[in-house]
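Intended use. Records such as the Acyltransferase entry shown here are meant for training and evaluating sequence-to-structure methods. They are not intended to support clinical decisions.
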Amino acid sequence: MRVDQRVRRVAHPPGPPVDAAAPARDGEGSAAAATRRGRLEFLDALRGIAVLTVVVQHIGDYQWIGLLGWSEHWFRLGEFGVLLFFCCSGFIIPASLERRNDLVEFWIGRAFRLWPLYLTVTGVLLAAWERVPRPAGYRPVEDSVVNLTMLQVFSTRPLLIGASWTLGYELVFYLLVSVLFLLGWHRRSTASATVLLICALGLGGATTTYMLQLRPEHWWTQPAAALLLVGLAASRLPSWRLRAATVGMALVVIAALANRPHPAYFTLLVFSCMFVGTVLYRWTAAQTSGRNAAAVFGLALVVIVAAQHTWHHGYTEPLSGETPRWWTEAATFLAAVLVFGAAFLLRHRRWPRPLTYLGAISYSVYLLHALVLIVVPELPGRPWVNFVTLSAITLVGSVLTHHLLEQPAIAFGRRIAAARRTA
């Protein structure tokens, strides 16, 4: 298939929802994954587990300082949930793009999946600006514009929604997958995961955070070299539009990674976890062998421990006074990858409906719980009562936003994509 064909419409019947696209076929020795209403059950179950741990961590931290201290010292429950989300994205996002085989349609789906709810939550916070706690140093106009992009985590400006840092990593992953798709490298997931894991271990402390803004000595050499390599790879594409699109998206990826807030090893491990999910998808689609998938999975476990032990520098959390150790972070990453791997092996089984439903509305739960923690005044009751109350408000609000905002926006995006497909 020529590269330019990958950004044009390919005739096929409408598929399942974007976040639930099932692989077309199963690989060697793998059982078919159970689905419900076109959604992969094991992925929804994992999302349910992920958002549950995030909500318990964040709402619980406000009620029990001991929970915050425990998580900082022993196991980072909220980070575990976030990493589970990343593994799920690594599995399903390439499947979604390749099912469509149309980059524009893919981004239409992503835009109507993510931004309507995100912009609504952001609008509520800005409307309540005078009555809610403000991030230190937040500039209402300039910083609000930055926060609307979802890439604010890759700047030195404050985050309006603290939990939104994960959305920036998701967005960069979508861009990276899109670049690989245009270059025709999207099926080389085993190589991508291996390179990222090796770089996480070998280059974990080699670059400065916020490089583009702090500008240490020779700051420009690494992003310039990366952009040059992308430009050379893109030069073989058949049209200037494809070359411009590839270089443009790669420029955003490079700028974000060069100006990231986290150490290089952490960022590279995050993307490695995503690509581990992609490699497992490749196995189900018979695009790589089970041996390759197992090798990448095993390499990830080894590199997580080695990279955390080599590069981790803990920072004391001010409220609890606890400092995460290298093994705290290693255990968190390992648990996320292992839980994802276990659920993947059990993907042919049915999962409890309450858990899969929670996974289906997990995006609403993720954003709404952050909103509730900001706008709901401090409650005077007992910690357990307050925890249950805030969790209930989050859950009820999430059910409403999922059915009244998320689903209509996704359906509208599909109508736009369908109209484009038939034009």
